[in-house]
Amino acid sequence: MKKQFFKTLSKINKKALPSLSKNRVNLQKATNIQKAILGWKLWVTKNSLD
Question: Could you tell me the pTM of the whole model?
Fold first, then answer.
């Protein structure tokens, strides 16, 4: 159940949130919003793979 929820959330994130790697965002120069988006995507991806 938990894994399915995170897989669905991951698909929603892919459609709704911007891709930071395609935009070539430098992590050292990223804004706090960009860092928060990256952290959120990382957390959701990690939980969908567990």
Answer: 0.77
